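Appendix B, record 7
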Amino acid sequence: MAPKALEGVRVLEYGSFIAAPFASRLMADLGATVIKVEPPVGDRSRAFGPFPHDVPESEASGLFLHVNANKLGVTLDITSPSGARMLKALLATTDIFVENCEPGYLEGLGLSPSKLRASNPRLIVTSLRPFGMQGRHSHYRGDDMVAWHASGAGQGYLGDPDREPLRGAWHFTDHFAGICAAMASMLALHAREATGQGQHIDIAEADLMALLCTGPTRIGVYHYVGTYLSRQGKLHAGGAPAALLPCKDGFVYIHAYEGHQWEGVVKAMGDPDWAKEPMFSGSFMERGQYRDELYALMNDWLMSRTKKEIFEIFQRHRAPCAPLNTMGDLLFDSNFQSRDFFRSVKHPVAGALTLPGAPYQLSATPWALARPAPMLGQDNEQVYCGLLGFSHAEMSDLHRAGVIS
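Structure tokens (predicted):
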């Protein structure tokens, strides 16, 4: 069996919903021992679907099963004195602590990153917040939508130009914050080998979105010209063809910027007579003046063919095109299958599952899907008795007191 990149590394996660759980899932995939700490009532993400057969079940939440695979799971009321002591005991054996609590929550329990690191200087604490833990807005609460719009990304990307901005796609910010947190945590782990000291990693989701989506181009345009780029909706604001266009079974995105690409589009569509009209003979930007006419003329050809047919024809003629895939399309896509992206695992309640994998392939230390997400409190005995040395009688007392479930 191939070695694991993070074998021997212990990660403790106390996080709700997506960002922190996704960060620790990425590390678990690479061999880290991740202990997920939930309150005795369970993580709130257990209430989010999809659910098998559309029947709500806390042990069968599609979201929870995805972001928590490969982990051990324990329950703990860290607001109780006993729970706080147990958390500190776990942290004394931990390399990386990943958390995305509400601003001030851990500090109010005497569990601030500075205090935790004072007790264990080798500990790496990775904190995720909407606005980070420094700055004027560090105490603000928020969610994925708040981070989208606080970063300026919503104004430029989400919705049609003549309408109000929309919310972002499904928790895009939380997922990218999780990736950033995992990467930063592993870099800090590497740095610890040289310094012998851990550190605190402070991740602000609004900062992350400003970097990814607002970035140098949009900030640069405003800085030098004094204007900002607006939402474009389904159509490119400048040239043509550059749009998400309907076809027989959905949509395809076509973007032919260069002259030879436009020639490929014309050949792919069978050299129609209308393509020889002077209005379409110019550059990408010049054709943009007649984009409504162009898309209307392309419509009949597109609507008579499927996404797959259009994509394959355009590929043969080296014309840029991509299908707008559904989740079903992705699951049976030959490229994803050839990369072994989706993996199967069996869960005692949810049954046979097919889960998305990692977006990378490491030749020497590959990722693996070894176990499904834990059921509520599934590993309490293994962790508390095996790691902390609690007796079964003590476990019973903690259960009766509501400290664990």
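Remarks on this record: DSSP finds 17 helices and eleven strands in the chain. The two ends are 36 Å apart (CA to CA).
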